[in-house]
């Protein structure tokens, strides 16, 4: 299957980060950016961003849910 390519703006929105954060993630190696032939603009493979998202720690996680349930009135 052919990869789905995202622009910088699309990738930042997909990851729910700012463009500046996306550029920092490129600089520190967390995200790989590609330059397609005939263009100097960066592109990102959505599949690779999905892998990044699936390996990222979840905000709030299950522990926060348990805490809320424990504090809920009966």
From TrEMBL:
<dbReference type="InterPro" id="IPR041657">
    <property type="entry name" value="HTH_17"/>
</dbReference>
<dbReference type="InterPro" id="IPR010093">
    <property type="entry name" value="SinI_DNA-bd"/>
</dbReference>
<feature type="compositionally biased region" description="Basic and acidic residues">
    <location>
        <begin position="60"/>
        <end position="74"/>
    </location>
</feature>
<protein>
    <recommendedName>
        <fullName>Helix-turn-helix domain-containing protein</fullName>
    </recommendedName>
</protein>
<feature type="domain" description="Helix-turn-helix">
    <location>
        <begin position="5"/>
        <end position="55"/>
    </location>
</feature>
<dbReference type="GO" id="GO:0003677">
    <property type="term" value="F:DNA binding"/>
</dbReference>
<feature type="region of interest" description="Disordered">
    <location>
        <begin position="52"/>
        <end position="74"/>
    </location>
</feature>
<dbReference type="InterPro" id="IPR009061">
    <property type="entry name" value="DNA-bd_dom_put_sf"/>
</dbReference>
<dbReference type="InterPro" id="IPR038148">
    <property type="entry name" value="Tn1545/Tn916_Xis"/>
</dbReference>
<dbReference type="Pfam" id="PF12728">
    <property type="entry name" value="HTH_17"/>
</dbReference>
């Amino acid at each position: 299957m052919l990869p789905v390519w995202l622009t910088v703006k699309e990738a930042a929105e997909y990851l729910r980060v700012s463009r500046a954060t996306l550029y920092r993630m490129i600089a520190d190696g967390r995200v790989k950016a590609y330059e397609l032939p005939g263009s100097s603009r960066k592109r990102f493979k959505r599949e690779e961003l999905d892998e990044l998202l699936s390996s990222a720690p979840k905000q709030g996680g299950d522990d926060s849910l348990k805490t809320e349930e424990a504090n809920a009135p009966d």
